[in-house]
Amino acid sequence: MTKLMEWLLFAVLFFSIWIALISENVNLHFIKEWKQFVLFLPPVVLFVCGLYAATVVLYRTFTFNNCEQAAIELQEQIEEAKKDLQTKGIVLKCK
Q1: Which of 40, 59, 89, 90 could form a disulfide linkage to 85, CB 3.0–4.6 angstroms apart?
Q2: 39 with 63: CB under 8 angstroms?
Q3: Separation between Cα atoms, residue 11 and residue 34, nearest integer Å
């Protein structure tokens, strides 16, 4: 099962339960007491998921590791590729 299918399955289950609760197809005594909360549950869940996603992206951005050795190796490979292309007659314009 792909990640998209997992998210769609969760969304369908969540909204099916939510619609059943707000349309009063499920008769539970606490649903009437918490009607306002249940009504605004999807935007709250969406906000919390967005907040979580933003936090994860920011955390991983701020803790991203610099790979100095890999950067040097990549620059060497680029120079080697340029020299190889020049020997084959291809001229590259450098900015």
Answers
A1: 90
A2: no
A3: 21
pLDDT digits 0-9 by tens, 35-85? 888 889 999 999 999 999 999 999 999 998 888 898 999 999 999 999 999
Which helix or strand (DSSP H or E) is residue 26 part of? none
SS3 91: coil
Q: Give ∠ CA 48-51-54 in degrees, rounded to 5.
A: 150
pLDDT at 52: 96
35 is written with which tokens?
A: 């009607």
Task: Tell me the pTM.
Answer: 0.57
**Cα–Cα dist 22/61, whole Å:** 40
